[in-house]
Write a structure and sequence with these properties.
The protein is an all-alpha fold and 233 residues long. The protein folds into two domains: 132 residues, no CATH class; 77 residues. Helix content is 68%, strand content 0%. Helix 5 runs antiparallel to helix 6. 27% of the residues are buried.
Length: 233
Amino acid sequence: MIRRSYSAFLAQVGCAAATLGCALAQSVPSAPYLSVPQRCAFLVSNPYVAKSLALSSAQSTAIQAALKRYDADAAQQAQLKEPSEKEIAANDTRFANSCLGALNPVQKDAVLKLGLQQIGTEGLLDSYVAAKLHLTPEQARRIAATYRAYEKKAEDVDAMEGEAIAAIPIPKAGADTTEYEAKKNQVFASYQAERDRLSRDKRESDKAILKMMNPTQRSEWLALTAVPPKKRR
């Protein structure tokens, strides 16, 4: 799996994207240096999530101040020829901790649940989530091994597909990209069967992980990751 932080994304696409902080933070970043609660905290910058949390005026002010600093630091890194991974990680961590610090326990749990709906069983590898479900060390070990086995398969497919894309000559600036895009699409199509197999493997991996839990843990995990039904209008 490709792991990247939100600010790393900003650094790649340029400082203009830094103004889109709230819009871009609609998904949980996959930064290995962040805990699951820290990753989930990024959702607070989404105005729809913020509204659902019923933030107080003081909380909103604190989070907006943190976001302003975050965007400014991300924009600064985006201007560098070689952005500092250390500074990017520090910016991500500082912002996540600021958001978590502004929330009360109920709001933190709500954000965690929203994030885990995106993260899925990978979240069980996090010590905070494991403790919340009272996983034993043996359960945590077996779950990690099962998830890592699937992850390795996904990484192998990503690598092969990426190498195939990289082998396609990139058109010069201003040149027609029709042929280039067509070749890229051919590569994507050629790996569709692998993607389908990965989807099946992921479902089987998730089923196996659920079987490693006791009934109480399983119920708590399914409650944490359940997507609420849409309200009827």
